[in-house]
């Protein structure tokens, strides 16, 4: 895999073929993600969203264990940035996102990364980055960025 260095590479789509390659690509993506930006991470179950987040968080110098917030709903990591990792899968109402009090807790520089963003779209900023993850026929994982 060619090392993805530019936003253009990401908008065209980055393909990885292992969890390690996904984490490495995500660590590089961390250098492109502006501070104080929300990243909506879209994709089906098992597509590699949490693996991507693990690499992204490592890209911000965070060395602690990075886990899925499926049951906790929110994990917060502090390194070069304050990272709020949300798994909105179990939220039944967009207003439940408010109960997490992210916007009250965020101190710049921060990033909010939301898995299952469609569940809480009404509570997310209009200007956000969207990263769509899909599984390809050959088993690879493609990550395609769009910036609003």
Question: What tags apply to this protein structure?
Answer:
148 residues, alpha/beta, Rossmann fold, 7-stranded mixed β-sheet, 4 helices
Query: What is the arithmetic mean of pLDDT?
Result: 90
Taking Cα atoms only, what radius of gyration do you get, to the nearest Å? 14 Å
- Main sheet characteristics: 7 strands, mixed
Query: What string, H for helix and E for strand, traces the elements in order?
Result: HEHEHEEHEEE
Strand content bin: 25-35%
CATH superfamily: P-loop containing nucleotide triphosphate hydrolases
Unreliable runs, pLDDT <50, ≥5 residues? none
Remind me, CATH topology? Answer: Rossmann fold
Oligomer: single chain
Beta strand count: 7
In CATH, the architecture is 3-Layer(aba) Sandwich
Number of helices: 4
Give the end-to-end Cα distance, rounded to a whole number of Å: 27 Å
How many domains make up the coordinates?
1
């Amino acid at each position: 895999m060619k090392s993805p260095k530019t936003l253009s590479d990401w908008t065209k789509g980055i393909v990885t073929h292992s969890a390690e390659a996904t984490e490495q690509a995500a660590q590089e993506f961390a250098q492109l993600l502006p501070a104080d930006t929300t990243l909506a991470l879209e994709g089906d179950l098992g597509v590699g969203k949490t693996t991507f987040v693990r690499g992204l968080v490592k890209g911000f110098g965070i060395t602690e264990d990075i886990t899925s917030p499926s049951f906790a709903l929110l994990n917060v990591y502090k390194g070069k940035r304050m990272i709020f990792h949300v798994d909105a899968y179990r939220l039944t109402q967009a207003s439940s996102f408010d109960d997490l009090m992210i916007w009250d807790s965020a101190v710049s520089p921060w990033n909010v990364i939301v898995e299952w963003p469609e569940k809480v779209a009404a509570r997310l900023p209009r200007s956000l980055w969207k990263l769509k993850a899909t599984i390809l026929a050959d088993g690879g994982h493609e990550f395609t960025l769009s910036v609003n």
